[in-house]
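User: Batch of two.

Assistant: Item 1 of 2:
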Amino acid sequence: MGKDMEAELKKRFNVGKVSQAYGMTETTLGVLLSPYGGGKIGSVGKVVHGMMVKVIDEKGRALGPYQEGELCCKGPLIMKGCVGDPESTRNTIDQEGWIHTGDIAYYDEDEYFFIVDRLKELIKYKAFQVAPAELEALLLTHPSIQDSAVIGLPNEDVGELPLAFVVKKPGKDITEKEVEKFIADRVSHQKQLRGG
């Protein structure tokens, strides 16, 4: 949950603090956890005791603070493998025992982690990678849009075209062309909503 959504949640439910955590089925439990009473806004917290977490680039090199890459985890909470499926295990857990989550993240100087996107959900438009989360966050800044989702529409010529689904705010009206123009005016050429 990003900073803006967390702030909206606090406002809507009139709560002072929101604590986030991060985990997945393959990690058994949460491997990142915000301190009791809340951590940094928009963060999923810090590494839990006994676990190791790193952020890597496309070549598998560990990245430093504020550098975005794939989140990887290692430790006693990680699954041993996919039962009866060694190929899936090899595609998920590397030879050193790190599970590759498929989530794009970064950490700050205080070692708080922030999830920013999904590696496997990136839209491939020509040779460019388009992050759906970036377009969704931008769409949510429009005064007539309450919610949004962006996916890749398969296209033989270019790979995928960014396609947006939006929910209008009650009492507001907006056309498809207005949504497309709103995005086109704010993003680079490859990120435009060519899928509609």
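Item 2 of 2:
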Amino acid sequence: MDRVHIIMAVYNGAAYLAEQIMSIRKNTFTDWVLWIFDDGSSDETEDIINRQSAEADGRIHYMKNARNKGVTLNFLEGIRTAVTGAADSIPVKAAENYYMFCDQDDVWMPDKIEKTLKAVKRNEKRYSKKLPLAVFTDALIADEKLKVINPSFHKSNHLNTGKLDLPHILMENKLIGCTVMFNSALADKLTVIPRNARYHDWWIGLLGAAFGHLVYLPAPTLYYRQHGENVVGNQDFHAYVRKRTAALREQKKVLYSNVTQAKEFYDIYRDSLSKDKKMQVYAMAHLMEKNWFYKRYQCLRFGFLKSGLVRNAALMLIL
């Protein structure tokens, strides 16, 4: 028996929320629980959730935060709540629990849960369900009315999904949170809620790469809606290049944020990392303390690199 726990973070999501929840309810896989964490909405978000919940046979759990946490913390703390709820609702031996992230404004394809779960189960057989595993997929980029702008998020952003080892993930996030599913072995690794995680999906990616496996499923499973209120949205590769060229100083700050994230990851997990992974995380955590030559040497030695020549040229420039 498999049960999928969907973790949704919402904030003033009334415009698209009902459509998103309905797309979950219409999925071909039906043994799911939706955990909604409201970060202090002041619009009709709560009313919409209550109406949806009344029609969903008790599978929607709504919690409103006492204070605004921000999207990353809201998602990560939501994992712990869902894990506790999963243990309380079904005896551990009676169910295999899996976890997904969900944004408030996208639309899921009808087979999203089923397709992703099959990929997770297939790779658990390959690697062992005792190891942390996260699967993420592609997404259709759509406008406010769900008209497809681009058929592939990863291709439009020139992201190399073949490089999912820990050094690459330490430097660059390739996961789209709203496409991710991970197993209980990974969820159980979230023993401490980080304060310096760049994004919730990035932290999950680090856990998978450090302790188990990351797997990319090259098929879109949702309409990734782009609109004026996106917290993290899509930008095409040319926009990325223009932005990076015009703001190299700002990008150095981003690089320091990546290093700060690595430092916290090292502080939390140093005693459980394998020797080689421990060395990789430590090197990233102390990257910016090195001289001009050694920073670049470390990036090449360990593979702290991004996707493609342009991104890596910019990285070498700002180090």
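The mean pLDDT is 94.
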